[in-house]
Design brief:
It contains 5 helices and 3 strands, in the order αββααβαα. The chain has 168 residues and is mainly alpha-helical. A 3-stranded antiparallel sheet has the order 1-2-3. Pathway: Protein modification; lipoprotein biosynthesis (signal peptide cleavage).
Length: 168
């Protein structure tokens, strides 16, 4: 059995969905072409992002391809050589890996990231499936942290001490 299998499964699914959707956009859209799915609210708009999230570092984001590669290799090494991770950690890191590789592929192939989800109602920057995966991964890690901080016996912060003091 593969250690941290949910990590690997989620990462592969994210990469495949991300690359299929980007390929579809590249085959069906001209640069900056927009298709309204709900006019004024949600459009599919093909843009190129040479920077990071919110187009940060877009003047020279060529170093971002190496950052994506480094993060991806570090996550894979952690899952392969590290301990068996709890489920929420596997999911979180798997989503992040899938997103990092998805955008990393774009950076290496094209020198930019293909973005197309365009929420106009709130004037949110255009993004893609890989970006969604990274954010879902971060949410999973927050859930993992929250679950670890909860007392397992349901007795609040006193835990076993509370039992001992009542029994004495």
């Amino acid at each position: 059995m593969i250690k941290n299998r949910f990590f690997w499964i989620v990462a592969v699914i994210c990469i495949v969905i991300d690359q299929i959707t980007k390929s579809w956009v590249l085959q069906n859209f001209q640069l900056n072409e927009s298709w309204p799915l709900w006019s004024g609210v949600f459009h599919l708009t093909y843009v190129r992002n040479t920077g990071a999230a919110f187009s940060l570092f877009s003047e020279d984001g060529s170093w971002l391809r190496w950052l994506s590669l480094l993060v991806s290799l570090a996550l894979m090494a952690m899952a392969w050589f590290g301990p068996k991770l709890p489920l929420w950690d596997q999911l979180g890191y798997g989503f992040i890996l899938g997103g990092a590789i998805g955008n990393g592929i774009d950076r290496f192939l094209y020198g930019y990231v293909v973005d197309f989800f365009d929420f106009r109602l709130i004037r949110f920057p255009v993004f893609n499936v890989a970006d969604v995966c990274i954010n879902v991964g971060i949410a999973c890690l927050f859930i993992s942290i929250f679950r670890k901080s909860q007392p397992s016996n349901g007795q609040g912060s006193r835990g076993a001490e509370g039992q001992r003091s009542r029994g004495e």
